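Q: Hi! First time asking for a complex rather than a single chain. Here are the components, and I think there are two in total. Is that enough to go on?
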Amino acid sequence: MINLKNKKAGERVLGFYWMIVFLIITVGIVSAAVLFYGNPLDVRGIESRILSDKIIECIADKGSLNETAVNLLNADGINLQEVCGLNFADNYYDENQFYAEIIIENGKNIVFNKEHSGAFKDFCEQKSRKLPICHKEILFLLKGNDFQKVSILTSIDKTEQNAKL
Amino acid sequence: MKIRSLKSRRSQGFLTENVVFIIIAVAFIAILFVFLYRVSSTTRSIEEGTAKKIALLLDSAKPGTIIELNINALLAEKASGVDELNMISITGNTITVKLKENSGYSYSFFNKIGATKEIETLPDGEIKMLKLTIAEA
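A: Yes, that's all I need. Here is the structure of the assembled complex.
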């Protein structure tokens, strides 16, 4: 008789524990879903890669350095948009959200948005959704018979639209 | 006789408890799935996701490219007052996706291109495609 009573009580306790397990799983799934879907879709990583590709298409021609395009580009990158077919205008933000740096070894250095480089370049090593996202590319392009090392760094802020502040 | 009725009452109680437990568990899981579906498919998140994805496609597109997108999911979410062709609009270098009168999401792309759009229905008559033809700006 005592054994039967114990069994019944044991089942009740087990049921109670099941409920707790359910509750913990639910809280976990709900908080994960809220965290995941509560944050905006962050596309800046892909955007900065595409921007980097666009710049490479602009300064490279079949594996060689496109000297015509490079010569056209000003050191302050002010005509980068014009030469490379880009448009950085964005009605959502007051300030420019893009930064681009083209460093040609033993050659020209082109930096777009240099005056705000601290707000972009300095955060490249830090991984945070609330900071601009960078992409760095190093390539070797033919110039005459020699290979020329070209480093391209692109960074995109657009934090308000891509990260929960 | 008495022992048998006691046993049957006990097994009945056991069965009821288990049935109640299973019903609660199924209800719990069903509510969880409904919640997940609702959280993941809000108009705002669909608009944002679509605008950003199209912006990325336009960023990497070259003049002459034709982009075709299945828009059936968007049409299912779209309010009746919003025109099919105007639920996605491209002004300058900004793409706007608007599925309801009082909503909408805009995102800009940096590729200097222009795009014309039209809606096509596939021969099966069920799938609608948004066709974007990329041209030089």
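A: The mean pLDDT of chain A is 89. Let me know if you'd like any chain examined more closely.
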